[in-house]
Amino acid sequence: xxxxxxxxxxxxxxxxxxxxxxxxxxxxxxxxxxxxxxxxxxxxxxxxxxxxxxxxxxxxxxxxxxxxxxxxxxxxxxxxxxxxxxxxxxxxxxxxxxxxxxxxxxxxxxxxxxxxxxxxxxxxxxxxxxxxxxxxxxxxxxxxxxxxxxxxxxxxxxxxxxxxxxxxxxxxxxxxxxxxxxxxxxxxxxxxxxxxxxxxxxxxxxxxxxxxxxxxxxxxxxxxxxxxxxxxxxxxxxxxxxxxxxxxxxxxxxxxxxxxxxxxxxxxxxxxxxxxxxxxxxxxxxxxxxxxxxxxxxxxxxxxxxxxxxxxxxxxxxxxxxxxxxxxxxxxxxxxxxxxxxxxxxxxxxxxxxxxxxxxxxxxxxxxxxxxxxxxxxxx
Length: 380
Prior knowledge:
Elements: E1 24-25, H1 31-40, H2 46-58, H3 71-80, E2 81-82, E3 86-94, E4 99-106, E5 112-120, E6 123-128, E7 131-133, E8 148-151, H4 154-165, E9 174-179, H5 189-200, E10 212-216, H6 220-227, E11 234-238, H7 244-250, H8 259-273, E12 277-283, H9 291-300, E13 306-312, H10 327-339, E14 343-346, H11 360-372
Parallel strand pairs: 1-2, 6-9, 9-10, 10-11, 11-12, 12-13, 13-14
Antiparallel strand pairs: 3-4, 4-5, 5-6, 7-8
Helix pairs in contact: 1-2, 4-5, 6-8, 9-10
């Protein structure tokens, strides 16, 4: 299996860090890059720090709002750059759980991505996408329908958080981020890593590395590479099965990188970073929720610095054959893992009534666009 190669990613439709009009997306520039660019325009480098704060901390979407900049600079910026990478198309809220799901339209090419804002006892968290669509082909996931369109730029990843911050109470901030929306983050490695560093900037969103989680379907080489980045983020591995036969049915990526290679890479990440790896395990009734599979999973993960996140299936309209297991069956699975010496918790359901599963809101909007004749490039 190891010598099988995954198809090459399609290139983004638009130049990285530029919008359709050729203006530079400043949100994707690090403070050092922004300082160098500002100097090239003939302005003092300290202006870059002001611009960065306006873009990331204040989240303004117009250079005219940057009131401590000279008028001439604001005019110049409007001619060559943009503070906008996306616009909100729609939002759905679940009042009981204080969860909101957003559909954003990217200004570069009018493609759409989803993001989720969630309230927890410990504060607010954001779930962001890393790609438009996804090519992983997981059988239970709505994100994969229509395949992968393109990678998101670092600016587009970070701007999802900035956009959601606008809906926050004035005295509250998003304190944690999971890169777990549509797409496989580790296939968009450079942009994802850069976005993480941007999220962490003290003059910007100021989100601690330990409050950032990167999810993956299991790309061993990229997992090992991330371990060497000196970024103490949490790695979340979507496992969903304890053996190759079942995991290959659910996740085609397992036919390229089998369970033993993926778990070895997770073990390497934990050993190098000292960070506990999160194992995401989606429970599907009658398929991967049997007691025998819980014991098999316990043996597979024995000795690994790990926390298992059990996720009862959030039904997907396109996959009616997959059903949610009963609460008793979920608890039984958790207890069996505990008997194997592993820590496992059941994820609290958030937003089940607002198309909360990855890809559902975008898919629905895409279908509606086709019915009304609205173009949506990249969908087939």
